[in-house]
Amino acid sequence: MRRQDRPIGIFDSGIGGLTVVKELIKESPDEDIIYFGDTARLPYGNKSAQTVLKFSLENVRFLLKFGVKAIIVACNTSSSVALTALRRRFKCPILGVISPAVREAVRVSAGGRIGVIATRATVASRCYQGEIERVNPHLKCFVQACPLFVPLAEEGWTNGEVTLKVARKYLSPLLKRGIDTLILGCTHYPLLKGIMRKVVGERIEFVDSAREAAQEAKRLLAETGLYSAGRLTRSPQGRCRFYVSDEPAHFKKVGRMFLGKEIEFVRCMR
């Protein structure tokens, strides 16, 4: 198999990384994808940095068994805590979701006041603040941990009064800070865009870390000669294969909501 025809590996703590899969399919429709969701050990956002690193190393080793040509860490918590260590440990190109999102937020921010919503672990790592300061130290960054957003998304509670109240609780402090741009610093959060838009109105720019990561992957593969554009053959197993560490039935059910279509291939690796 040519290197260009090898699959792209993606991992997340659970289902949220499917937003990256969806965006990657849009950006790079000829690419094969191997996805691993660590559904037995989610969420990563309330785990220690040491534990997140351990899980992330295991996830990369699992994906490398499939001969992937690149790996996307489709988890903001893993990207914030483990990305540097993963890149030191493995030769395979490994992309995170933080830097691409920050670059886009800096580009579109009109007033230089950027808000970030993320898990507790991502907020505690100060990865977004540090990256924004590195790109443009003159901008202001305000962060808010939103621990209930992930379980709400996983349960499919993307609308309704309960989710609206939670969104208001989390987003109100950022609105008081006068933000003009909001980074969705968790790959689950795009499912809640609609309810968040009701809270913040139309004037605030949303930056989707999943979409930016997919675009970054396309650029990297093109630059390194690994982009699989216009391939004539297809894998007999299909373009997307999904592996989970627990609850494949739930993954398929909720995954339909994330991808907007049925998931045909899911295998449990426990």
Write the layout of secondary structure elements.
Blueprint: E1 8-12, H1 18-27, E2 33-37, H2 49-64, E3 70-73, H3 76-89, E4 94-95, H4 98-108, E5 113-118, H5 120-125, H6 127-135, E6 140-145, H7 149-154, H8 161-176, E7 181-184, H9 193-200, E8 205-208, H10 209-223, E9 240-244, H11 248-259, E10 266-268
Parallel strand pairs: 1-2, 1-3, 2-9, 3-4, 5-6, 5-7, 7-8, 9-10
Description:
The protein has helices at residues 18-27, 49-64, 76-89, 98-108, 120-125, 127-135, 149-154, 161-176, 193-200, 209-223, 248-259, and strands at 8-12, 33-37, 70-73, 94-95, 113-118, 140-145, 181-184, 205-208, 240-244, 266-268. Mean pLDDT is 92; it is low at 232-238. The protein has eleven helices and ten strands. Strand 9 (240-244), helix 11 and strand 10 (266-268) form a beta-alpha-beta unit. Helix 1 crosses helix 10, helix 4 packs across helix 6 (127-135) and helix 8 crosses helix 9. The chain has two domains: 3-96 and 211-268, Rossmann fold (3-Layer(aba) Sandwich); 98-209, Rossmann fold, CATH 3.40.50.1860. Strands 4-3-1-2-9-10 form a six-stranded parallel β-sheet, with helices on both faces. It is globular, with a radius of gyration of 18 Å. It has 270 residues and is of the alpha/beta class.
